[in-house]
């Protein structure tokens, strides 16, 4: 009877072991399925995070460019306002307009005088160059004549000695 009892216990334990192995397999399969699902969800979340990070980077870049553009535009507005203020000030004071016209007229007259002086100096330079060229040619011709005379005298002396 002890053998039968032992066999019954062995059978029961094998049944329990088989059931435990099936349960372990099922748990392992479920764990694998959940891990796969987790991996898919993690990958999807990482892709979304990368996409969001890229959108943030693009928007930050666009924001910085917009700030720079706004700053540049403000600088141009400030420059234009200064010119407008100056024009309004000149327009508001006719005596200033008259003074500016007179100043422009004086500066134009000075410019014209300087231009005339430059043209006169240029003409004087051309005349001086022509004159010095003639003098150089006369000097060279004179030196050449003296050399020819000296050679002629030397030839005449040499010829008379023989």
Keywords:
single chain, 162 residues, mainly alpha, 2 helices, 98% helix, 0% strand, elongated
| Shape, principal axes of CA atoms | elongated
User: How many beta-strand runs?
Assistant: 0
In the predicted model, the low-confidence regions spanning at least 5 consecutive residues are none
Q: What letter string, H or E per element, gives the SSE order?
A: HH
Amount of beta strand? under 5%
List the total number of helices.
2
- The SS-based structural class is mainly alpha
Rg over C-alpha atoms, rounded to the nearest angstrom: 56 Å
For the sheet with most strands, the description reads: none
Kindly report the average pLDDT value: 88
Could you tell me how far the N terminus lies from the C terminus, measured between alpha carbons in angstroms? 174 Å
Helical coverage, percent range: over 70%
Question: What's this model, at a glance?
Answer:
This protein has 162 residues and is mostly helical. It is 98% helix and 0% strand.
What does this structure look like?
- With about 160 residues, this protein is an all-alpha fold.
- Helices cover about 100% and strands about 0% of the residues.
- The protein has a domain at about 1-90.
- It is built from two helices and no strands.
- Helix 1 (about 1-90) crosses helix 2.
